[in-house]
Amino acid sequence: MLNPDQWSTIHALVAWLDHENGRSPHEISMRLLKLVEEAGEAAQAYIGTQGQNPRKGRSHTTDDVAAELCDVIVTAAVALTSISGGDPAAVLDAKLKRIADRVGVQ
Q1: CA 18 → CA 13, 22, 82, 84, 94, distances in Å?
Q2: What is the DSSP string of the chain?
């Protein structure tokens, strides 16, 4: 879960994107597609840790995967903030609570 300072940074990033690119339906779509792109980069890095591509060998480290996963988290938080229309932290908290309740963890 993001802490308040992290959410403050996310809000600043969204404000910057809004200023640079606007907030049209097309721009929101691009922010969601960016999330898919970042997830693909995380998968690519993980594949690289496994040496799955014989031409490239072990091309990535677990630190690379962690960095890409952080990009996924930030990009998802930006997209959530862009579409939530209110308090994205509350949206995330509520969803996390529903998931925890469903599996029986606190």
Answers
A1: 9, 4, 9, 14, 26
A2: ---HHHHHHHHHHHHHHHHHH---HHHHHHHHHHHHHHHHHHHHHHHHHHT-STTT-S---HHHHHHHHHHHHHHHHHHHHHHHSS-HHHHHHHHHHHHHHHHT--
| Residue 43 vs residues 8, 12, 36: alpha-carbon distances, Å | 28, 28, 11
Instruction: Round to whole Å and give the CA distance between 71 and 33.
Output: 13
pLDDT tens string 25-75? 999 999 999 999 999 999 999 999 999 988 989 999 999 999 999 999 999
Counting the structural domains of the chain, the total is 1
Residue type at 68?
A: E
Tell me the residue range of the domain where 82 lies: 4-103
The torsion of the CA quartet 63, 64, 69, 72, rounded to 10 degrees, works out to 150
d(CA 37, CA 72) in angstroms, rounded, equals: 9
